[in-house]
Amino acid sequence: PPARPLAGRSAIVTSGPTHEPIDPVRYIANRSSGRQGHAIAEALRDAGASVTLVSGPVSLPDPDGMVVRHVETAGQMLGAVEAALPADVAVFVAAVADWRVATESSRKIKKTGEGAPALALAENPDILATIGHHAERPGLVIGFAAETDDLLENARSKLARKGADAILANDVSPAGGVMGGADNTIRLVTAEGVEDWPTLAKSAAAKRLAAWIAARLGRKGSA
Length: 223
Ligand code: C5P
Description:
The chain has 223 residues and is an alpha/beta fold.
């Protein structure tokens, strides 16, 4: 296969968690190191794509050779993704917080000695679902499903509901050590069926995904 099968193609990748502020010092977040998302952005770059990486707060360095947009909240992440359209492929790896605090306090919430404050939550936008049904939808839209139970069933329902072409399902039960770890065991779910990948280093899983994307898109201009 060609060394740079994604030359001339553009890609958007989301990575990391989002932080949803409660007040100036506190936030709600998901667990995510950003390792898998950043590795996918790097693999797409290495395959020749022009990559925009939209990253929530992570402790990883910005990868070279791509545009990196830093965001904090889900709302900002959606805005940065939409600003990066159009693209040939989008891969949604970020662990986006499902909820934000309905009304962020501009001041630090004080302990009153009269019990804990009640936090009203509001639903965040689903970035994958928004882009999966977008007027400028990329030709290939890929999401992740990190599950502890009913992996395939949940992945299949996400495919349809979110308008994705593929869902990479992985088991994040604590015993597997996927969260923050170096390896990932992926089942790639499409409308056509399920492809079971062996346990791979996150960088190797990323390379395999980049190759899958290249095969799926075909050579630029040859379609
Ligand atoms: O529904 P669930 O959070 O399990 O879906 C996971 C997939 O959806 C991932 O690809 C994730 O990046 C994406 N997602 C998103 N915006 C959200 C929630 C999830 O893009 N608000």
